[in-house]
Design goal:
This protein is 42% helix and 20% strand. By secondary structure, the protein is an alpha/beta fold. The relative contact order is 0.18. The chain binds alpha-D-glucopyranose (GLC).
Length: 440
Amino acid sequence: MHDLLNAVRKLRMEFVMSGVQILEAASLFQRDMAAGLKGLDSPLKMLPSFLARPTGEEKGTFLAIDFGGTNVRVMLVGLKGLGSYEIMAHRAFPLKDPAGGFDFTSENTDAGQLFDFIAENIAEMAPPGSACPLGHTFSFPTLQLGVNRAVLIKWTKEIRMPGMEGRDVNQKLAESLKKLGLGHVVPVAVINDTVGALLAAAYQNPGADIGSICGTGHNTCYIEPCPPADGGEMIINIESGNFDKLRFTKYDISLDEASERPGEQRLEKMVSGQYLGRLAQAIIQDFIDRGLIFKGNEHRLFKTFTLRTEDISLLLADQSRGLSNVAGWIRSALGIDSLLEERVALRTIASIVVTRSAQLVASTFAGILKHIDPELSGVHVIAVDGSLYELTPGYSRMLQATLNNVAERDFSIIGVKNGSGVGAAVAAAIAVQEVPKYNL
Ligand code: GLC
């Protein structure tokens, strides 16, 4: 019991950040932003989007695709102006379905097959006949050459499909649409999901100037007042998940080494839903191996079990005295009965991992705010979308409290729904206005 308490205490010290550490991370992040903007060596790519703040008056009907990693969603979105919109139709389909016999995230597929599959799903929703502009939220790092030209730099979030890196995303999509006789569906804009979140929020709230995803992946964008290319303010996709000036624990190091791309996306591997479950699992496994919990049952535990980030939420949601839900979870996941102290340890591990995630994200927000407003005196609204933010008990509160603490004033962090769909539609509306060649 004493050993377990000590181990949990030590874990907390390794993971949970002090105010000073959060501020240090914020200023390193700010420095890397400035370097990335100047094109100097930096883990932050600072990618231009070729889009500025919407007016809120964008109108029309647009197809939107949200290609995020695990699922693809297709939506028909009506923008009505004055910040109001309607999702007129909506469907989602997985990229991987063992029962259906396909996996578009694996090394055994290719970009042609993937985009043909997406085009087939668009076919079912595309209004027949007249030209329909399409906005595409593609949630991976891309080198953007124009509002409708984005070349995939590298896959993230453990996607392994070969042959797509270095290729123009919307060109591939347009080819697949044409092949299916859907030439009237015209991809006119391609954006990152963070940009989608920001556009969707700014469509309704002119104060919104930072957009972030805390979901399967993690990344943030913001409105840069002085981008390197002239022409006024522009939304910049930071690709903040690749930030790496961080304090790594032994668990972070082994998770990184076992990942698809060691050395990359180090912040993302410490904060996002794709990895938090694995991180908690590695800690629990270590506790078991050290004989701190589940003694006598070591042989049949975690080796074949996968702890998901949803399980973390379930552990955190248990407010009961005896942690009866945690007990039930242990029984169904591992097939054993547990002691109360073991349940408390598991719940604490979940909370430590989640707390550090919120603290790290808050530190990057503080760095961005300092970059755009060194005195921290203006109005700024941070729009956040994603399952981690939305569904993890306490996450949004912790994020908000940590930011306010280190910034020493209140900033507003708001949840944004349908960011990728509505944002893609807003981007398409802006593109159609600005690029006369679309002639739609
Ligand atoms: C990954 C991608 C990034 C995306 C984020 C959230 O970090 O590289 O482009 O915004 O996931 O989906």
